[in-house]
Amino acid sequence: MKTQLLLLACALPALIPATAKAAEEATPDTTSKSKVRVEFKKTGKEEAEILERTRPTDPNAIPTPKFVVKTSDNKFLLTIGGQINPILGFDIGNNLYKQPGAGPSFVTSAIPVPAVSGKKGDFYINPLNGSVDLQVVGLAGTKNEITGYIKAGTNGIDNTIVLQRAYLTYRNFTAGMKLTLFQDDYGCQPPTIDPEGPSGEVSTLSYEISYKSPSYNGFRYAIGLDIPTFYSSKGYYRGKDYPQFDGTQVANYADAENLIPDIPMWVEYSFSQWNRIRVSALLRNFAYRDLLAGKTRHDVGWGAMISGNLSPNPKWIFYYQLAYGQGIGDYIQDIAGHPISFIPSDSKPGRMKASPMMGANVGVSFNPTSKLQFNAMFSEARVWDVAPYSNVLDESQNYKYALYGAVNCFYTFNNWLQWGIEYLWGHRETWNIGGAHDSRIQTQLSFTF
Q: What is the CATH number of the domain that holds 223?
């Protein structure tokens, strides 16, 4: 990762002047007095509209930067933005903060089961939740407008810097490292202090190329190709109908290459930004070796989702998302990383099958003033038919379902500084050792530039 960041840092100085030169040449002078100037200024409405066309829109996205370097004709823009979010909090009922991969993220799948006496609470101060981004727009406002976007930040657990986004957008095509097209940025959740977000949210980073259409009287569509990531059992049959195969590996996904990308797509109708409905789909192909038959086989994974927003008046915004599918654990926030998306089939030893799973969210935002916002949300992630496989995993991997609830309040002092306070509750249930919960109270100061 350090090598990737170094290469990007070396490439940017060459990219920026080249793009600026292309933008200047694309707008020839009509008189000797019409020279294009380079300006450094506060981001205005026109500049913000250009930048926001291709900036991320997920709940944890960095807001549009306050200043911009641009040409006087707005054909070239460059911004550097960032946010620093120190968080102070208490865990009550468990010590989720100290679990591997958690930290300030309220990862319900990491809640220890059962809660250990003497470790049913924790206090923390976390200054490591921050990120910076760089955006370059060339030939802005023309049909050949091109945008490059890079975001890097801490992982919230230590001082390691990681690349979080890196993509290009050109003529409605986007390619690079980004949030999957299967995710509905606007519909998935209201904002939270918690960097993780709801357990059932559809959200994952992907190496992707995708196309989003323009709006046709409110209708839009999109389709993409993702590099697949599969979380599969190790191919050991654990069913009851064929006990002679117990403890014997019957399939191996590591011996077969997946040559078909994941295909996310959606169709949306929008009355306005906050009154809209989207129907999404996901197709997956899973290749593996049937060790009993000595053959390469393929399974199909799929997902379907309905999501969107409802805003009866400007002060209220409702969010909803319901996703269901088979073998889509990599795309559901709380199930990702658990080896239960594809498991050996009970009825056909040597064969694999996709596990059914679900992710659901509902939420609401209330904005009584331009500076004050209240939010509430509830979420569930659940997987079925995987008990024999979960029960032989480590306790931290045994997963049946998880519930997530959050209420918070944000107050914006000015364009730079925001304060928030939040209460979180989560519950993780396993297949054979019961469940446990954790509650968290936390507060944050968020500085953005």
A: 2.40.160
Domain of residue 294 covers 172-412
The dihedral through the CA atoms of 145, 8, 154, 333 has a sign that is positive
Query: How many domains is the chain partitioned into structurally?
Result: 1
Which residues on adjacent β-strands are paired with residue 89? 124, 442
- Domain-located, residue 101: no
Cα separation, 32 vs 342, whole angstroms: 67
Task: Please check whether residue 115 lies inside any domain of the structure.
Answer: no
Which residues, 6 or more positions from 334, have their beta carbon under 8 angstroms from its beta carbon? Answer: 107, 108, 109, 199, 200, 359, 381, 399, 402, 404
Instruction: Render each residue's pLDDT in the chain as its tens digit; 449 residues.
Output: 444 444 344 443 443 444 444 444 444 444 444 688 999 999 999 999 999 999 998 888 999 999 999 998 889 999 999 999 999 999 999 999 999 889 999 999 999 999 888 889 989 999 888 999 999 999 998 999 999 999 999 888 888 899 999 999 999 999 999 999 999 998 889 999 999 999 999 999 999 999 999 999 999 999 999 998 888 998 999 887 778 888 889 999 888 888 899 999 999 999 998 999 999 999 999 999 999 999 999 999 999 999 999 999 999 999 999 999 999 999 999 999 999 999 999 888 999 999 999 999 999 999 999 999 999 999 999 999 999 999 988 888 999 999 999 999 999 999 999 999 999 999 999 999 999 999 999 999 999 99
Q: 312 in a domain, yes or no?
A: yes
Beta-carbon contacts of 313 under 8 Å, excluding residues fewer than 6 positions away, are none
Q: Answer yes or no: are the C-beta atoms of 399 and 389 closer than 8 Å.
A: no
Alpha-carbon gap, residue 6 to 181, rounded angstroms: 28
**Is 341 a domain residue?**
yes
